[in-house]
Every structure is written in C-alpha cells, then in structure tokens.
Amino acid sequence: MTSKNKFPFVTCHCSLVTASEMKHFLTTSDWKRAELEALIVSAQAFKRDEDKSKPLAGRSVGLIFFNPSLRTRASMQVGVYELGGNTVVLEPGGTSWTLEHRDGVVMDGDKTEHVAEFVRVLGRYCAGLGVRTFAQLKDWEDERRDPVLEAFARYAEVPVINLESAMHHPCQAMADMMTVREKLGPGRKRVLLTWAWHPKPLPMAVPNSFALAAAQMGHDLVIAHPPLYDLDDELMRDIETQTREAGASLSVTHDADEAFDGAEVVYAKSWGSKSFYGAPEKDTETRASFRGKWIVDAQKMRRTKQAIFMHCLPVRRNVIVTDEVIDSPQSVVIDEAENRLHVQKAIMQRLMQDAKGGGGT
Ligand code: CP
C-alpha cells in the first residue's frame, strides 16, 4: 500500500525528515523479506528477554480503536509499557470525537472532527500511532482501498501501525510467521489457509495478510475456500509474484478436505465474500450450505503431516474448529497470541526509535 503524505516535510524533535522517508507499518508488502526476517529476529530477542531496551522511555504512543479488541489492545498497551512508554487509547465516537476521513466533504453530518487535524494533533504528543479500523462490508470497491487507514497515513507526521484495517492485519501476520518459525524451524513449509463457516460474513484482513506474509516468507501456500469467497484479485497477483520469486508454490482449491493433504500448518479463518459487500443477507444465505463441511476437525487434521493448528482469535469453538482440535497438542493459538506482543515491540522499536515525533514549529 502506498500512502502519499499530504505534507512534504515533517518537523520532529530531532530533525526535519521528508514524509516519504518516514516508515509506516500498514501492510507487509511495503517491507522487504529481509526486513520482515529482521523483525522476527528482534521479536525473538524480546521474547527471550535478551533485549531490554527502552526506546519509548518518556514517550507516548496513541492507539486509536474504531472497533473492539482483546489481543491487539492489550498487547500494544503492554508492549509500549515494556518499551518504557505510555499509551493514549482513544475510541472515536466513544471516548473521542467522531471522525471524518474523506477529503473535501462538507462536514454537516454526524462527524465532528477530520482526520487531518486529529492525526496531526496526536502526532504532536506521540512518537507513533496505531489504528484499528475494520471493513464495514458495505462497498467493496471503496473499502478495498483501505480509505480510513490511508487517511491516517496521509496526514501522519509520525509512524502509523496498522492494528487491523479493512484489508490488512500485518501485526497478526508477523506474529503468525514468527509462530510458524518457532514451532517448525526455518525454511519453506506447506501452509494451508482454509476458509471456515461462520454465521455471518467477516472482514478479510486476516486471511489477506496471512497469505501475503506466507508468500513473502517463501512458504508453499494452499488457499482453500468455497466458490465466491476468493481473495482480492490484485492481492492474489501480488501473492503469486511473491511465491514465484521465492521459488515456492501457490494453489487455490474449493475442496475443503483435499486441501489438508500434507499440510504442515493449518490456518483457519472465516471471511465474507466480496461479491456480497452491501448484501450480508445474501452472504449468510450462500454460506448456509457450507456449515458442517468447512470446519477444522480431527478427521481433516489426520490428512496433514501432524500440522500445527493456527487461528488469530477470537474463535467460535465447534463452528470454526472443534474442541478436539483446538485443545489438542497441535494447537498453537495461545503461543500465536503471545507472539503479538513480541513482534509489535520489534515493530515499534524499528519505527519509533529514531522518529521522535511531535514538536511543531
Ligand atoms: N487477533 C486479534 O487481532 O485479536 P483482537 O481482535 O482481540 O485484537
């Protein structure tokens, strides 16, 4: 994702830096494989308690949540604290003003403040910003461009971390890649991303980012989903390019069982069909026939090579995955959630140790 900053120069405590030099963490596709590998190495050092540095000492990070969270919110707050800093948590429309992100609109509706002011004001207080802004599943062509996250990045004068947007959840994907390496060691693995039935359509950020990161890290990737539940075309082209360049394989299947054959990693997630953005009742009706078929159960797991089971959480037990699988030794979901903390510390250290943030003229 490219985000052109609205302003060519950013005034920081330390120095004048061009906005284009400032690095955000919006999607892993903005980062090279070597940089992602370095983040995992750094996260491992935090996890082993070998890195005790406090790059955020005396500084604050703004966390903006348009949507609910357990793991992301808690791990970011704990992570900032462990790096020596303080968090400012804001919920637009709840504990702070409702926000408009579109440029050029007459704000005579229910939005009180524009991202243009919100983001730059917070940047004067904070070394970096994290933002969570889910897809609303109303308008595919609009939401696939990640307009709210893009507005934050466009106006930001400090680094922005995507804490799950309409299209990406890169912090989750990095924790996922760290977990795969931790459990199975380095090198290429056979990784299955499988759609699962859920009573209602959900956003696509997690499967998008998982598939993208797995491709960037050079894994052999199988994506399994029912017809009509394909991922974004442009994203799939990117994934195809990444796997080809890494010498890895990519396949897409509509077979819920065969997909498990030989897998070393099973990653389950439900998502909505882009064909049904704006028509959730059609999605619910379409997916009804997949109930019971698209669930991760012991029978499917037996087709794998003793695969680890992964899910970003929260997960609906006996809907997405059976109790038997999620409670089995193959399930790594709790370690995966823990790794959010370590990898986000690595990301914040990388982004914010030099960008002092704040301090207007
Ligand atoms: N996986 C994840 O992002 O969890 P939360 O929605 O609880 O933050």
Summarize the structure in words.
The chain has 361 residues and is an alpha/beta fold. It has two domains: 13-168 and 338-352, Rossmann fold (3-Layer(aba) Sandwich), CATH 3.40.50; 173-337, 3-Layer(aba) Sandwich (Rossmann fold). Helix content is 35%, strand content 14%. It has helices at 33-47, 71-82, 115-125, 140-143, 147-155, 170-184, 205-216, 233-245, 280-287, 298-301, 323-326, 333-352; strands at 9-11, 16-18, 60-65, 86-90, 99-100, 113-114, 128-132, 160-162, 190-195, 220-224, 250-253, 265-269, 308-310. The strands form four sheets. The chain has a five-stranded parallel β-sheet. Strands 4-3-7-8 form a four-stranded parallel β-sheet, sandwiched between helices. Helix 7 links the parallel strand 9 and strand 10. Helix 1 (33-47) packs across helix 6 (170-184). The chain is globular and about 55 Å long. The model is unreliable at 9-18 (pLDDT under 50). Phosphoric acid mono(formamide)ester is lined by residues 69-72, 164, 172, 312-314.
